[in-house]
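If you are new to this repository, start here. Below is one unmodified record pulled from the training split, so you can see the exact layout before writing a loader.
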Amino acid sequence: MIPKSVRERYRKLVDTIHEYRRAYHVYDREIVSSAALDSLKHELTQIEAQYPRIIAPDSPSLRISGEVMPQFQKTRHEVAQWSFNDIFNEKELHDFDARITRFLKDSIQNPHPTYLCELKIDGLKIVLTYKRGILESAATRGDGVVGEDVTHTVRTIESVPLSLTRPIDVVVEGEAWLGESVFAALNKEQEKKGQEPFANPRNAAAGAIRQLNPAIARERKLDMFVYDVAKTSESFPVTQEKELEYLRELGFKVNPYAKVAKTVSEVQEYWEAWKQKGRSQDYWVDGIVIKVNERRFEELLGYTGKAPRFAVAYKFPAEQVTTVIEDIVFQIGRTGVVTPVAHLRPVSIAGSTVSRATLHNEDEIRRLGVRIGDTVVLQKAGDIIPEIVRVVEPLRPKGAKPFVWPTHIRECGGDGRIERVPGQAAWRCAYAGSFAQERRRLRHFASKGALNIEGLGTKTVDALLERGMVHSFDDFFTLSEGDVRTVPGFAELSAKKLIASIQKAARAVPLARLLVGLSIPHVGEETALVLAHSFHTLEKIVEAPLDDLSAIDGIGPIVAQAVYDWFRERDNRELLRRLTAHIHIVTERTSAQTQTLRGSTYVITGTFSRFDRDTMKQMLRARGAQVSESVSRKTTGVFAGENSGSKKSKAEELQIPVLTEDDFARIVQL
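And here is the target side for that same chain:
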């Protein structure tokens, strides 16, 4: 039996994918990104794999998208056009290879196919037909049997030969695309004319080809790679690799990055390499295409109803995927700000699995119209935290109710009442002394990024707070061994070690770390360093006029106002008076002697045995270096520890020095 909820979800997926694909392939209108659409299609195929009897006659997995626009002449393809099945991870790659091997074993003893790996260009597929070496017609893929005649616009593409190097009959397939640089200029023109900019280069290319006026296509300077011979009056090349050589000989533009892989591991290596390098091309690359290289094996493998058995498209990790909101909960920040957080059905995006995404504030929830149970598009670009960008409303379950913003949250303490911050979209706890806020502030003050008090972890801070031993930052420095001994889990030795650790931290507190630990709104690690290097002492920061704060490079008006206001509050000044009675603040005046690494930029990735990453960052910055989270051509070096991942690979690709822990000790002169 197929559960009713699965049947309903499946039917909604079928209808929604049809709607989105029709808009994309027929009218060049992108309702959701191609990555988000891929995510919906992948969910559909997973349901079909689990419940084969559910497969509908109109399932998107059984047909090729696209219909002929009414204003274009229909043209029937001489050779049926196929689309590739998609795979998304290494396991699915191995499954594809295993299917190939099993299928061939039925016909050949010990088959050893190789694979041709090509870049998957995100453009518009075009079928070119030549008679006696002269371009006769160009057509879109359409539904795979009938396409649109776009010969008049494709003729304007400079890379499409109007005649071949010899007078043969041939049908070839390729991808028309628009370069990023041309795309940027095109959108500037659109804005000047007061017209809507194009969503992406693929849409702009498709729009140019589907113009009745070929002059518009000519202006957009389209390009085209040809990658396949569908039919020829000559003998077919014996391999896919030789087929690309054959196309070059005829005068077609062929992408230069194809590579033969002898093993699945080599295919994976090619994919890994281009996952990083793909963004550096002028055309969009959204994955690779893997084809069995030997034509005799291809002919044995043949086709399913929709796709070739001998080839698949291996997509790069999506930066947009779809998932379901299972709940919305509230997080109380150190400054009492209330943030709604969506708990998601776990989903892989940009190479990592996520199950949480911030909804920012009440206004954002209203803008998105999000409800518990909704299917949403989740976006992540690079190292940016995932965010929800839209709701897929056709997939909304029956009975899903609009989300109601609360008036009280128990974790705020007191009566739990929350209030809107004047002039902002944020809400905060009305009771400023809430336990949740105190706990977060105290945990943060003792954490690695702030005073870095060893042994004073979250559980210990919570236990001290629950027993009324600490309420404010200065209370940590008034604790005695006897006080700590009363906390469950502490004995004489562990209590002695904790007090020694607190006293050690008090003897030398870097000014920047203190500023981080105070939980001043908008003041994180980078802002604290800027303030410390600009004023050098806490006293000067406390008394700094608003204009002086605003004038600092890297301190905007919002941050300047927040810092100015925090130090003007009477309770905060009293806190500083008590706190500075127990600690010694270390200030660093910048000088030519200390700034030995000025002008250099380093990236730190992975884990190290001798240093923690926060300490490494602090030591580099103290010597004038910049510490970045991303690798670029401006990076001086990358300190790579265990499990370094993509940042190390990026450094190697750009030929930037990859440095060890010993190199770090040498560079900072330890």
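Two things worth knowing about this chain: The chain has a mean pLDDT of 88. The first strand starts at residue 74 and ends at 76.
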